[in-house]
Amino acid sequence: MPSLTMAREKATILVESHDLYYGGCSSSSDHGANCAIRKNATAFDSSSSSEIVVDLPATTIETDPAVWPKSKPLPPLKPSAKKVLFVAHFFVSTDVNHMLLMAEELRDRGHECHFIVMEPYVKRVEKAGFTATGTPNVLQGAGLDTIQRAFSYASHETSWFTYVYKYIYGIAPLAAEYYEPSMTIVEQYLAKHGKPDLMVASKASECAIDVAWHEGIPLSVLFTMPLGGMLNAYEDVVAAPDANLWGGVKEQSSLYMRLRKKMVRSAMLINPVVLVGSMKLAWDRYNHGYYPFAIPGQYWKESLIISPWSMGIDLARPLRPLTQLVGFMTPPLPELPHDDASLAKFSTEDQEHLRFLNSKTDGVVFCAFGSLAVLTQEWFDELVAGMDLWARTQGPNSGAVIAVNDLSLKSGLNVSKVPDTVQVTGWINQKLFLAHPHTQAFITHGGLGSLGESIEARVPMLVFPLFFDQPNNAHRLEEAGVALKLHFREERVTAATVAARLTKLTSDPSFAHNLERQYQINKRSGGVAKAIDLIEDALLWDGNLSHLIPVTERATFFQRTNLDLYLLIVLLAAAFLMTVVWPIAQPLLQRYRITARLEAMANKTFEEVISHSSSSGSLHEQLSVISNS
């Protein structure tokens, strides 16, 4: 019979039937790996010998590893194709932009994506190749008037109290007004197309969050703001920014600022418009069969929360495992043309802007304030004059571009009188301007999409915050060394101030260094790829992510506080006292009480004798009287 000899310090030989299995087996002259040969499930431990000889039946042993049978390949680590529904029924375009990036990545991984968005964004979604259902357009008619009024308050009001009060006065009833029709559309979609495998809802899509919770649809929430605000309902954040009102942080807030916050919140609670809006929202929820006084944060406790923020910008704080920071989710910057043929691929408007940028070899400042900011005439004039001052100090081939949105133009903003160094435009390809090497600074309102694109392009920012999360963003960006802020509620906006800060941004090399660092940090955060990895994890678990919920939240109140344990200890101690200690102590206490009573009587008798002796007769006579009595 043939034999196999191996020189090994330690080997375990398993022999089974007459078949040979080579699981990484080799002789000492080959790879030196452990050898396993199975027959009759018999094991031999040869650790005491350096040489092993095994007699085998007449069998051909193939010693060439190249022809050994290969292991069966593992299946790819991804879920099968799933259906994902994205819902962003409010007027925040940032939510739609982020969802489109996520949907494109999901589509590339083989999943099916659908959208429910506000009517003006339907074409944008369909242009990206997805089906979309539209919800009522808030940006028209009375809704547009309300938004213009609310954001005009937010953009112009220098009093914090009046700003918050009037802003909430405008937005709160609007949110309540559009809840019911948006809810109806979501319910009709589900009735027609069935439940998705996962729903991704924006933070403001309360109707979608309600439906997902009550219908048992796995939910992921896209939170395009600094963590805090609504998340405080279930996150222990000590120094969280109040993202929904203003940018104050507790550790940076004075006594006056913290008191002012409490006063404004109290005023909001007694605001009749807010109360009426809240009651209407509760009534609409009740009519659809949902709990009327829902707290959005409470519905998110078992859902994946994706926050497109970077730890290099946002505050450090403890996060729940279901809350994930993935870094800024920004699309790749456009590749700039290098000849006429590549230039022809761009739109006519983009070609014009590229020619302008190419001609400004001394540098360009780009200014844009998103789709919701309303500029006052004073601010516009000072910003334009400041950019003009900066351009004139840089050289003859420098300039500036300011993009003005429709809300500002409809508010009556006059943009006709600007110097030759400054161009005024409407909607613009912002990424194209930021990607161009001649762009040296970016004046922005500090919205999430804009600051993410600016960091991606490594362009320093002058942040002019207005409302929502923007004041906090401005503060965080300035602390990170990638921007300077110009806050109209903290200082007066002047052309000289604008020019001075633009000069600092474009001349101080520390901004370029800090931007490069933040860019690297953000790339390591994962971005869109990490967000979709997290969503696929949720799909693999069929949306049940209970294993990621902290044990302190899964435990009951008594388990978290140990009150039941303490109560049991008290009861056991009481039982021990009553059944063991008391029977022993009772006779002793009774004897002690009798002794004490006798001593008291004796003392009283003695005192009576003494007092009587002082008033009459001798002591002998008094004792005789007492004894006779």
From TrEMBL:
Superkingdom as given in the UniProt entry: Eukaryota
UniProt-recorded Gene Ontology molecular function terms: UDP-glycosyltransferase activity
Record has Glycosyltransferase as a keyword: yes
Transmembrane segments: 565-585
Keyword Glycoprotein: no
Entry keyword set: Glycosyltransferase, Membrane, Transferase, Transmembrane, Transmembrane helix
Protein name: UDP-glucuronosyltransferase
Annotated organism of origin: Seminavis robusta
